[in-house]
Write a structure and sequence with these properties.
By secondary structure, this protein is mainly α. It is built from two helices and no strands. It starts with 5 loop residues before the first helix and ends in a 17-residue tail after the last helix. The mean pLDDT is 87.
């Protein structure tokens, strides 16, 4: 038989077909493992991102409340530099009145 006979081509073809199937199976197996790993990593990271964004939202809320209280305290400190406001506080809390001023007291209902 010469090298171009049908029998030789057939036997070579079967051996290369088996190798091609093996390579294809290995390729599919590697791709399945890779996509499984990628999917697991994606879901793990998305859960971690959700937790971190929840923590960020809580910290932003606390930051806003702290900023509001800081602004309120700054406003009160700026008011304490005013003599008239200090006089109002002295009258209200300590019943201190300047000389010559008579306090006017009213009875409040229900007390």
């Amino acid at each position: 038989m010469n090298r171009f006979s049908a029998e030789e081509k057939n036997s070579n073809h079967n051996a290369s077909a088996a190798g091609a199937k093996r390579r294809k199976f290995i390729w599919i197996l590697v791709m399945a493992v890779f996509f499984g790993w990628a999917g697991f990593t994606f879901f793990a990271q998305s859960a971690a991102i959700a937790d971190k964004s929840e923590q960020l939202a809580r910290k932003n809320e606390s930051n806003e409340s702290v900023t509001a209280s800081l602004n309120q305290l700054r406003y009160e400190v700026s008011r304490l530099n005013d003599d008239e406001y200090i006089g109002q506080l002295a009258r209200k809390w300590y019943n201190m009145y300047p000389a010559g001023e008579l306090p006017i007291r009213t009875e409040q209902s229900g007390q």
